[in-house]
What we know:
It is elongated and about 125 Å long. With 163 residues, the protein is an all-alpha fold. The protein contains 6 helices and no strands. It has 2 domains: 3-54; 82-162, Cytochrome Bc1 Complex, Chain D, domain 2, CATH 1.10.760. The chain has helices at 3-34, 40-54, 63-78, 90-102, 115-135, 151-162. The protein binds heme C. Residues 93, 97-98, 100-102, 106-110, 120, 124, 128-129, 132-133, 137-141, 144-145, 149, 154, 157-158 line the site of heme C.
Amino acid sequence: MNNKQDHAFIRQFSGVIAAFVVLTIVLIFVARGVEPEVEEDGISSRAVLAEQRIAPVGAVRSGETGAAALAEAAAALTALPDAEDVVVDGPSVYNGLCAACHESGAAGAPIRGSADLAARADERGLDGLVQNAINGINAMPARGGNPALTDEQIRASVEYMLQ
Length: 163
Ligand code: HEC
């Protein structure tokens, strides 16, 4: 190789190196965009997420804060829905809850459409039956065991039972 060829080679080779340097810089910026830097903040929020995932399902509630949390949970469980939001659908209430006892006659529950139920209706009237269904009577739990049911829903399901 003569001097001229050396010069040409060095020029080309520097060009290639420069191209690689530019490519490297471009790649660094692209990579930053794809994977945001993990800062201390990111690590701590990951730790919080991990804590949430492995947290026990139950919790021991004690003292004043425990009592407050329990009261809140109990209130949420028994909170009555707003009257206008409630769909009054006797058959679906009956089938979803009352049928468990009133189709089979479990524990002496009067069976839907039976003579027993008709006799009770004759004796107490629809209002009397509804009152007993709301308040509970003997083995019949108040509101069938679901305190969230409204009076209207109980009445509709009793009417359906009588059909
Ligand atoms: C856990 C079983 C059970 C469920 C659930 C249940 N009942 Fe009853 N129900 C009974 C039993 C038992 C009786 C009979 C009580 C008695 O007269 O000794 C009864 C009686 C009744 C009576 C007759 C009350 C009377 O005055 O003689 C009505 C009406 C009634 N249930 C309505 C309902 C409705 C409406 C639901 C659903 C919202 C429902 N029940 C859910 C067990 C159940």
